[in-house]
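Lecture notes, unit on protein representations.

Consider one protein chain, 280 amino acids long.
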Amino acid sequence: MLAASGAVKQYQNAEDTRGRLVMSCMTPATDGTFISIDDEEAKQFRESVVEWLMTNHPHDCPVCEEGGNCHLQDMTVMTGHSFRRYRFTKRTHRNQDLGPFISHEMNRCIACYRCVRYYKDYADGTDLGVYGAHDNVYFGRPEDGTLESEFSGNLVEICPTGVFTDKTHSERYNRKWDMQFAPSICQQCSIGCNISPGERYGELRRIENRYNGTVNHYFLCDRGRFGYGYVNLKDRPRQPVQRRGDDFITLNAEQAMQGAADILRQSKKVIGIGSPRASH
């Protein structure tokens, strides 16, 4: 879990003992502390912060992959911000090619620093940084190229807007509210990370992390997040089969498990080909 940095200033609330606005995400809890999120001054401040964030943010929610799954959208609705006074040219950035799995749209950045803090502190990566100063900062690599960390895919969920998005989902895209999610376990290795796969029209479209405090916590490796394409292959075996001579006999799940158990019991030495995908 990332520590608070106070970069976005959306958690500034009224604190009566000091008589001024404080950053509640940066203020330690103490006895007798009273913090109000409903104070009128605090609400007006949060609305003004959203307006600042939207000064250079593109109005591309209809085509943004994170539309409907965006923290900035949630904050805009929560604060009631509905009118933007800025009518001038927005700042624009050049996007980078970050490889086959992650798309980069830097113009959507709100400079929360989540990405670089996660990448350095948790993913132990060194090739993603922040460059620039003041209101003109850039989050990316020194040059185009695939991110080196095997846990870089978590940037897709960590980013509160649509700077980093899932390319594998974009190939067969749909809004998150159109998918059905179910709890599952990753099959890519023996660790058993908890995942939440999203399905649409009988196809697996997206893999998200499912928190488990004793296994994977909040994160997944890139193999577990992006390596699901084989599930949608049309020629993938979808039922257990047994070879008898030159023929293949279809079995149900109970018959397959019983047959495998019989082979193991009757054989002193068994040689077989195993795969983490065989459980499908």
